[in-house]
Design brief:
It is a single chain. β12 and β13 form a beta hairpin. The longest helix is centred in the middle third of the chain and has 20 residues, at 308-327. The protein contains 13 helices and 22 strands. It has helices spanning 6-15, 30-38, 69-75, 84-95, 180-190, 205-211, 221-229, 308-327, 359-367, 371-374, 392-402, 405-408, 458-468, and strands spanning 19-23, 46-50, 60-63, 104-105, 114-117, 138-141, 145-149, 156-159, 162-165, 170-174, 195-200, 234-237, 243-245, 250-256, 261-264, 279-291, 296-298, 333-338, 347-352, 379-384, 409-416, 432-439. The strands form four sheets. Strands 5, 6, 7, 8, 9, 10, 11, 14, 15 and 16 form a ten-stranded antiparallel beta sheet that branches. Strands 18-19-20-22-21 form a five-stranded mixed beta sheet, with helices on both faces. The chain has a four-stranded mixed beta sheet with strand order 1-2-3-17, covered by helices on one side. It folds into two domains: 6-298, Electron Transport, Fmn-binding Protein, Chain A (Pnp Oxidase, Chain A, Roll), CATH 2.30.110; 308-443, UbiD C-terminal domain-like, CATH 3.40.1670.10. The protein is α+β, with helices and mostly antiparallel strands. Bound molecules: flavin mononucleotide. Residues 142, 157, 159-162, 174-176, 179-181, 212-214, 300, 309 line the site of flavin mononucleotide.
Length: 477
């Protein structure tokens, strides 16, 4: 089934048994609490909220979108049963070159079914959730696309930056320093101009997927999404001249002025803490809102990991770290996993086939220092390749049975961090963190004498499983 928009995606997930509809929830915190319970573990269905209290029937919110490996695989147009490690491998292959197909202009699209301009603009007409109990705003943009154009070139950047509802005609936007959207915005401001912006708040989740990635400066995410889909993303022109996904659910068009701010936040963030207080942030003055009949907001709820963000980013980061280790010329890497508990950044586990003395420590230091792995990392664990790095029990078993704390733990101080890390320092302007590398491989000098793992050999196991499966279906291969 070809997925062109969020509705096709929902239909696909419904047919795959991956979606549940919830009627009558309140978008003021209640909806967020429900979603958070669902994202406590992987493989629960995506949630489509309808008949939201106080809003017209049909005005919907989709959440818990990418918290199952089946949905992640289907979103990437891969077979539903692709395993976690196969997803890592698939992304490694894809990210080697990022094939691109430029977007295609079309004259019209479903997003034009309703157009509100000027005095008719009303951002509060949509059921934007207050996601967490102590959030300072309702947020219409969490799984959103923020579309801007570099004033010096034709480069169109798409990023995921949170968008708050201030009132009917004003939205708030938070873009961290260094993000491409911030650099573009500041270029307009330096010229004394407002920054034109388009925000899509419902679309094929593949577009969201790409927009949240650190795609290099001057590379267009719409082109990358086209490459990934295998066909051009269809776009239409709106008030600002910026491209608008033709099948988007709701699109906000406006300008970000330089000298006007409003207090925004706090907002519960991806590490599970209210990361910033309430402080002045840029605003979007809205010129127009377009939306489809019965529009759907695509939400993405940050929360205590695991959350919607950590599941799919885990395998993307794993692929990126693996690729960088390979490019650094380090042999023997068999698997990489960026664990959800660390927001898919802080906890890396690497499986290796040990090839020389010191190999395991080299891998640990390199993984926690390469570009994809360094930012906000806290713990890097290196294990032998008989350990499944995606299986917590196996990793803990390696830590308990193959690691000597006196020899195998290295602490590294004053590393690259973020103020979102509650343990970063100094407290006034947090930038550094301390981290550790744990070598949980069998000691190199005992490789041939280390006690044998007590498990039935593959041939014996195969025979026994074959013989007993009909009466003991739980017996595993
Ligand atoms: C769900 C989600 C929410 C995000 N929220 C923000 C945000 O509010 N502000 C921000 O600067 N980055 C946020 N990010 C991170 C950026 O989207 C990400 O770094 C992306 O690469 C930015 O695009 P850019 O590289 O074109 O700047 C978020 C990412 C995701 C997936």
């Amino acid at each position: 089934m070809a997925v062109q928009d969020l509705r096709d995606w929902i239909a696909l997930m419904e047919s795959a048994g991956e979606l549940r509809t919830v009627r009558g929830a309140d978008s003021d915190v209640e909806l967020g609490v429900i979603v958070d319970q669902f994202q406590r573990r992987m493989e629960l269905p995506a949630l489509l909220f309808d008949e939201i209290k106080g809003y017209p029937k049909g005005f919907r919110v989709l959440a818990n979108t990418l918290t199952s490996s089946r949905r992640i695989a289907l979103t990437l147009r891969l077979p539903a049963e692709t395993s976690k490690m196969e997803l890592v491998q698939a992304w490694r292959q894809y990210a080697k070159q990022y094939p691109k197909i430029p977007p295609r202009w079309v004259s019209d699209g479903p997003v034009n079914e309703n157009i509100r301009r000027g005095k008719d603009v009303d951002l509060t007409a949509f059921p934007a959730p207050t996601w967490h109990e102590h959030d300072g705003n309702r947020y219409i943009g969490t799984g959103c696309l923020v579309i801007q154009k570099d004033p010096d070139s034709n480069w169109v950047n798409v990023g995921v930056y949170r968008v708050a509802v201030h009132d009917q005609k004003i939205a708030g936007i938070y873009i961290s320093p260094g993000k491409h959207g911030r650099l573009i915005m500041e270029k307009y401001w330096a010229r004394g101009q407002d920054c034109p912006v388009v925000v899509s708040v419902g679309h094929d989740p593949m577009l969201f997927f790409v927009a949240g990635l650190e795609i290099p400066y001057s590379v267009g995410e719409l082109d990358v999404a086209g490459g990934l889909k295998g066909e051009a993303v269809q776009i239409i022109e709106g008030e600002t001249g910026l491209p608008i996904p033709a099948t988007a659910e709701i699109v906000i068009e406006g300008r970000i002025p330089r000298d006007e701010t409003r207090d925004e936040g706090p907002f519960g963030e991806w590490l599970g803490y209210y990361a910033s207080g309430r402080s002045p942030a840029p605003i979007i003055k809205i010129d127009a809102i377009r939306y489809r009949n019965n529009p759907i907001i695509m939400g993405n709820l940050p929360g205590i990991p695991p959350n919607d963000d950590t599941y799919y980013r885990g395998f993307l980061r794993s692929a990126a770290v693996w690729e960088e280790l390979q490019q650094a010329g380090i042999p023997g890497i068999k698997a990489v996993w960026a664990h959800e508990a660390g927001g898919s950044r802080m906890l890396l586990t690497i499986a290796i086939q040990q090839m020389y003395p010191g190999h395991s420590k080299q891998v640990g230091f390199a993984a926690g220092s390469c570009h994809a792995g360094a930012y906000a990392n806290r713990i890097t664990i290196v294990v032998d390749d008989d350990i499944d790095v995606t299986n917590d029990h196996q990793v803990w078993w390696a830590l308990c049975s193959r690691m000597d704390p006196a020899l195998d733990i290295e602490v590294v101080k004053r590393c690259w961090s973020t103020s979102l890390d509650p343990m970063s320092y100094p407290r006034e302007k947090p930038v550094f963190n301390n981290r550790m590398v744990i070598d949980a491989c069998r000691p190199w000098e005992r490789l041939s004498t280390f006690p044998k793992v007590m498990e039935a050999g593959p041939e014996l196991k195969r025979k026994v499983v074959e013989k007993w499966r009909s009466v003991l279906p739980e017996i595993t291969d």
